[in-house]
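Posting this for the archive.
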Amino acid sequence: MHSSRLLDHFQNPRNVGELPPPALVVEVSNPICGDILKLWVQWEADRVAQVRFKTRGCAAAIAMGSALTEWMVGKTRAELAAATAQLLEQQVGGLIPESKHAAVLANDAVRQVSRPAL
């Protein structure tokens, strides 16, 4: 059974959509289940100012995208780089074993976003 926090993020996703350039855009996917998560991140100095997401996937992947965007706002690249799938999973109140891939997908996206700008 999914947590009430996960169900809330799934039924009422926050920060869905895109941000205009010069937002950083990253896309990650899980080739096994087919889930795709795309993030748009706007930075101010070294902190995340805004985040938007789009995802194609299961309820857990959609909820993780929503919770991830809320968690990321205000974080530095270093804080993002220190994130783990387990930490991100906590943002939705935990995941059932069959849905843990959603936290891994979110963590893959965070790792890409945390890379220094070129």
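The radius of gyration is 13 Å. The first helix runs from residue 4 to 11.
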